[in-house]
Amino acid sequence: MKMANSLRGEVLNLYKNLLYLRRDYPKGTDYFKRCLKNVFLKNKDVKNPEIKELIGRGEFVMKELEALYFFRK
């Protein structure tokens, strides 16, 4: 059960970090939040080890967004 709680924490942390990045999204914060919520809800029933893969993908998206924002400024 501890592993599940650990992954849950990672997922929540990823969601919060991505949500924070919406502030500079070119199509607007509402659009970003809606898309983010849909993606997380679509994957809510995913089980371990696929969760780790999706977390990795989410972290990649986060880095890409940060790079996009960096180059826009």
UniProtKB/TrEMBL annotation:
InterPro entries per UniProt: Complex1_LYR_dom (IPR008011), ETFRF1 (IPR052000)
Assigned GO CC terms: mitochondrion
One record GO biological process: negative regulation of oxidative phosphorylation
Positions of the Complex 1 LYR protein domain: 10-62
UniProt superkingdom: Eukaryota
PANTHER family for the chain: ELECTRON TRANSFER FLAVOPROTEIN REGULATORY FACTOR 1, GROWTH HORMONE-INDUCIBLE SOLUBLE PROTEIN-RELATED
Record's protein name: Electron transfer flavoprotein regulatory factor 1-like
